[in-house]
Amino acid sequence: MLAGGATPFYRHVMSPTLAKILKRGTLVAALGFGLLQVVPAKRLFGIPTQDIGTNPPERFVFDGPPEVEHIMRRACFDCHTNETRWPLYARIAPGSWLMARDVHNGRNHLNLSKWGDADEEERQTDRENAWEQVESGAMPPWFYVFPMHHDAKLSDADKATLKAYFLKNAAQK
Ligand code: HEC
Predict the structure, then answer these.
(1) Distance (Å, rounded) from C-alpha 162 to C-alpha 131?
(2) pTM
């Protein structure tokens, strides 16, 4: 509350008209943001919003060395297992839409939590594909690492550790 008729601070730095426009702009933005939360994004844009915040029940006890699991937990598990960490910002549109899409597609391509249903040959194919993705720099995706998950960035040492595991049983090429 402003004490007895004191001038709001912004009056000193901008005209009343500009202040009014800004106020209105803020209101419109807040309203738009609120509306985004109830947009039927699945129906309109095909976003798999039903996946937001969900972790289906299958689990696979990771079969590699602990240091490999440690790296993959921070760099891969959010999109390629049923053990996704869903922070608050990943539940709020439009960020939630991006994350839902990545997790949905990521799990479809490779879901380590389903490795229990795969035989060793299938898992090895997945591991070799995984190395291809890591070596080329495609995985983890930069838009995952850069804004929110700096700890997912793979050092050369991390990559060497992953390579040794991914290619351990690979046919010599
Ligand atoms: C932000 C989510 C995300 C993270 C983190 C992530 N991926 Fe992916 N990954 C995807 C998506 C989405 C696809 C599906 C292909 C695409 O859209 O590019 C994919 C595809 C793949 C594929 C299959 C490629 C193909 O052609 O079928 C492999 C293998 C893979 N990722 C490995 C990894 C590994 C290993 C890590 C960790 C080092 C990782 N990914 C981290 C989202 C992610």
Answers:
(1) 7
(2) 0.87
- For the stretch 109-112, contacts whose Cβ atoms lie closer than 8 Å and that sit 24 or more positions apart, written own/partner, are 109/80, 110/80, 111/58, 111/80, 111/81, 111/82, 112/60, 112/62, 112/72, 112/76, 112/77, 112/80, 112/81
Tell how far CA 37 is from the center of its chain: 18
Name residues contacting ligand 1 (CB within 6 A). 72, 75-76, 78-80, 102, 105-106, 109-110, 129-130, 133-134, 139-141, 144
Q: Which amino acid is at 16?
A: P
Across 98-124, b (16+ Cβ under 10 Å) vs e yields ebbbbbbebbeebbbbbbeeeeeeebb
**152-170 mean pLDDT:** 95
Report how far apart, in Å, the C-alpha atoms of 18 and of each of 24, 25, 26, 31, 71 are: 10, 10, 12, 20, 51
Residue 33 Cα to ligand 1 midpoint, Å, equals 30
Dist CA 83 CA 71 (whole Å): 15
The span from the CA of 70 to the CA of 74, in Å, is 7
**Contact, 79 vs 48, CB < 8 A?**
no
Q: At CA 148, angle to CA 156 and CA 65, rounded to 5?
A: 40
pLDDT tens digits along 66-84: 999 999 999 999 999 999 9
